[in-house]
# Entry
Amino acid sequence: MEDIKEKQDTINPQSVDLAALSPDERMIQEAFDDLLKDYLNSNHRRKVERITKAFHFAKQAHDGVKRRSGEPYILHPIAVAKIVCSEMGLGSTSICSALLHDVVEDTEYTVEDIRNMFGDKIAQIVDGLTKIAGGIFGEKASAQAENFRKLLLTMSDDIRVILIKIADRLHNMRTLGSMLPAKQFKIAGETLYLYAPLAHRLGLFSIKTELEDLSFKYEHPQEYEAITKKLEVTAPIRERLFQHFAEPVDAKLKAMGLKYEMKARVKSVYSIWNKMEAKKVPFEDIYDIYAVRIIFDPLPGVDEKNQCWDIYSAITDIYRIRPDRIRDWVSRPKANGYQALHVTVMGPDGQWVEIQIRSRRMDDIAEKGFAAHWKYKEHHVEEDTELDKWLQTITEILENPDPNALDFLDTIKLNLFSSEIFVFTPKGDIKTLPQGATALDFAYALHSDVGNKCIGAKVNHKLVPLSHKLASGDQVEVLTSRSQTPQPEWLNFVTTARARAKISAVIRRNRNETIKAGEAKVLEAYQNAGIESSPQNLDRLAMYFGFNKREEFYYSVEKGEVTIPDNIQKILKDKDNNVLFKYVKQALRMATKPKSETTDDTPVPTTPKPVYDKKKPYVLREEAFQRNYIIADCCKPIPGDESLGFINDDGNVVVHKRSCPIAMRLKSSFGERILNTVWSSHQTATFEATLEMKGIDSMGVLHEIIDVISGEFNVYITRFLIEANDGMFEGRVKLKVHDVEDIQKLCIRLAKIKNLQSVTRIAD
# Structure
């Protein structure tokens, strides 16, 4: 490798004549100039020379390398640095680290080279980013889950590692169009599963929203296009409503002498789709598509919080409020730092309008997250922030290893996605917990020993069980007993990652101790019978009692579920048991033998697994009643549904809907097994689909529904369940159809039946 001095000589900044550069060089230089312009417009100290040095170093390291889109690779680090600077508000250390983030992973340079050139801090951040990106993991482990584990571990060293990683993912999502469809599904699924909730937890609201929208765009292009067009068409109507609403508020706030801006914020495409799916309603029935945001510059000598309430008071003098929709995150900010006062009022056009009231500082933190705290650090942020507490919790979970990487991801996601509640201790201390947290979660939030010994709790002075769900404002006293230990069923009613990890650790430890005690009893029985306790003899006794694993046998012995007989000798000499033992051992050997191996005693021919071309869409066909795919039970897609394929361990293609939650896990955790799929014509094949119907209970409505399905459409009904109550009915009908088009036509016709208020397809 070259000497560091020689490397340094190659990257010293030179004066640049744009006219003399090639098109690629000009594009690179213009992108870097834009980055510097953004940096110079920020409040950070001017360290242009340091950033320029990092740019030239990265440019020389990536020289000649192109992205899949055909652009010079260096444009990617520049774009990431620009996001870090202008969209996250970070300074020169983060910008330099972003410019250098791929150098160690993709080139011959080392972390030591970075340290010698740019110092310890940048080297540490680049090293953290390289560790996240690299690494080889076991076959059963999910590479993404392990990467995520590493990513979270590095956060405790320097939060800038995670912020730069999110910026890196955001730029990859913005340029995802040049990737193959299967790769798009993998990256989009991983982004929605991991990075969007993580950005949300760190308070990066605008980035979280863009990550969700971009993921949605590639996973559901038709729905994305349809909602986008409807937003464009309805934009003039929303603008008129906003102007009508804003006029009296403007006059009032100006009379108060405030300096502020008021704007309408439109709900993201992904949020609208989510609400449509959750409520089973069309776009036209979503009423809170826009909210009004008021951002003010504080008056000198007036407290920000008081000013928020002054604006609230001015608005409620004009419009009638909805009392159950007041959200005070000014007095008690969210754990991700978010501060604002939300109020919903009845607008002049008879529509509910949500108003978000924030100071300029609060808005900065809402958009740029914890990065914006540093801008105000001297006066506004204590060292022991909620973020530090969250990082501490994450570190504790990571230090408690869980063999199943996917379970680990789901455990972390429980905390990333959840809303928050605030619960009081008997002394009045406040604990922040996720929505849905139980009394047992609260006990573990106090201390792991308190959780392990918890037998119940008093909530607002009333005795409740461990599984009792808490609400904001509850006062909780935990009751403990020295004889109590965590039980496996506890895992069914905890929601926090901390509690789940602590309970699992104790259960694993107790189980291992039980297995050891059971093993000692078995070995003692062999010794008393004068028989050698060889692995073969131990396996034979375990199989006699129906166990193919010794550990399970030992556990049952200690628990008293199995009693060791006095006549072990007779059992071991039993011919039938010997035959069974030989058969089971051979079966186990066959199960663990590599498919390509064959021996004299196992003359089983191996069938090679099919090889799939991921560059082309996989066509889902049915010929002679034989399908080249398997329908997933979790979401049951049918021809016409947006779908993807997952190659299972047997080499078969399992088809899921793209929106299926299980598919989301698979995309995130087994991205290399994902296939882009297209349906062929399925004119003869039929598939199961379920419709849910709701309406007014009236004479003849059931007969008319059945007549349309069976009579007009000649569709076969396999099951029909219906219930009527208080003049309304709800029903589910399971049908055999050819494709999505059949369902759409049927739903349109059924919707015309009088008194049938809604009909939607559901996953059953």
